[in-house]
Write a structure and sequence with these properties.
Subcellular location: Cell membrane
Number of helices: 16
CATH superfamily of the largest domain: MFS general substrate transporter like domains
Number of domains: 2
Helix content: over 70%
Shape: globular
Strand content: under 5%
CATH class of the largest domain: Mainly Alpha
Protein name: MFS transporter
Order of helices and strands: HHHHHHHHHHHHHHHH
Keywords: Cell membrane, Membrane, Transmembrane, Transmembrane helix
GO molecular function: transmembrane transporter activity
Pfam families: MFS_1 (PF07690)
Length: 401
């Protein structure tokens, strides 16, 4: 695989660390600024909202810039945002820093997916995408627990300064290793938006929201679930999240490898398995060993959906993939926010700390239904191509790329 993928993975590692490490140092941040934990929670939701807004906005603004230059600009923005967070004298400026950093998130993964796919042969595109996302999964194994430990030992500001330094390394890696090719296939914003006329693009983003949302319905409330239901200590939660991160890492790699061979069957299997694992979690959450195993399984199945979903979007929006790819990254964070909200509702209704698992299972099962619909539409479009070769197919067939 090209070394440029390493540069993209380093950038992804920094972004993944800053997205999730805030959860580990939230009490320290709240204490320093004199705000409540729920108020400090805006540092999480504000970041997610910034990703949803920043993904399409910055991608559109960058349509006339080479993808390499845009990736460098996004990493620079990431460094500025995390430096502002580290040095912020007030909570408002800390929140502003989080939002600035988050603006780079969606566009980096969206544009990076296109660049990664262009660096390799057609039959290896999903694997290349998964290697870039590997940086995000490794962040959950190393970056988040490491950043949490540093934040608790030396102060959360040091954590964010280190994350900013990771951004600088990512910037230099992109500058050195990513080739100065791959200008956007279209400098027309109108053409980029035209990709959204394809119902398959919308189906893919809906699958992303619901499928990945299923994971976060459970993970958002993993601390009370594991301490109050399974009986773990609070200190053990960090290591449980490492297990979850290891599952994400393995699922991401396997998802990319098998999606290159049979994309839709891989997606069907991952979504069906994820829904079943979340249902199972309502029972296994009462046993320490079984809870730990199920948690890592949810991480693996949840992230096994990422390479096929991102590849599906690139295939369906092949004429102008950059905006659609970035919008799909925003959909991941929209799924996070939706699932966290729904999980909070069922807990507040008195259904218990395991009730978000039921929410997640329903979300993932709905994504599976949409995947079957997408596959059926794709087969119908393929049939029209065969029977009426004179007419162009309205939907691109993944196997042709």
């Amino acid at each position: 695989m090209p070394l440029a993928l390493l540069a993209l993975a380093i950038g992804a590692f920094g972004i993944g660390t800053t997205e999730f490490v805030i959860m580990g140092v939230l009490p320290q941040v709240a204490g320093d600024f004199g705000v409540t934990i729920p108020t400090a929670g805006w540092l999480v939701s504000g970041y997610a909202l910034g990703v949803v807004i920043g993904a399409p906005l910055l991608t559109v603004l960058g349509t006339k810039v080479s993808r390499k230059k845009m990736l460098m600009a996004l990493m620079a923005l990431f460094v500025v945002g995390n430096t502002l967070s580290a040095l912020a004298p007030t909570f408002g400026l800390m929140l502003a820093g989080r939002v600035v950093a988050s603006l780079a998130h969606g566009a980096f993964f969206g544009i990076g997916s296109v660049v990664a796919a262009d660096l390799v042969a057609p039959q290896k595109k999903a694997s290349a995408i998964s290697l870039m996302f590997m940086g995000l999964t490794v962040a959950n194994i190393v970056g988040v627990p490491g950043g949490t430990y540093i934040g608790q030992a030396a102060g959360w500001r040091v954590t964010f300064l280190i994350v900013a330094a990771l951004g600088i390394i990512g910037f230099l890696g992109v500058a050195k290793l990513v080739p100065e090719t791959g200008r956007p296939e279209s400098v027309s914003v109108r053409r980029e938006f035209a990709a959204f006329k394809n119902v398959q693009v919308w189906l893919a983003m809906a699958m992303t929201v619901l499928g990945y949302g299923g994971v976060f319905a459970a993970i958002t409330y993993i601390t009370p679930m594991m301490t109050e239901v399974a009986g773990f200590t609070e200190g053990a939660v960090t290591w449980l999240l490492v297990l979850f991160g290891i599952g994400m890492f393995l699922g991401n790699l396997l998802g990319g490898r098998f999606a290159d061979r049979r994309l839709m069957p891989m997606l069907f299997t991952a979504l069906a398995g994820l829904s079943a694992a979340l249902l199972l979690f309502t029972a296994t959450a009462h046993d320490k060993v079984l809870a730990a195993i199920t948690l890592s399984l949810i991480g693996a199945l949840g992230f096994a959906t990422v390479p096929p979903l991102q590849k599906w979007v690139l295939d369906q929006a092949s004429a102008a993939p950059t905006l659609a790819s970035a919008a799909n990254i925003g959909a991941f964070n929209l799924g996070n926010a939706l699932a966290a909200w729904l999980g909070g509702i069922v807990i507040a209704a008195g259904l218990g700390y395991t009730s978000p698992n039921w929410v997640g299972a329903i979300l993932s099962a709905t994504a599976l239904v949409l995947a079957f619909i997408a596959a059926a539409l794709d087969r119908r479009a393929s049939g029209r191509v065969v029977t009426g070769a004179a007419q162009p197919a309205p939907v691109q067939v993944p196997a042709s790329h």
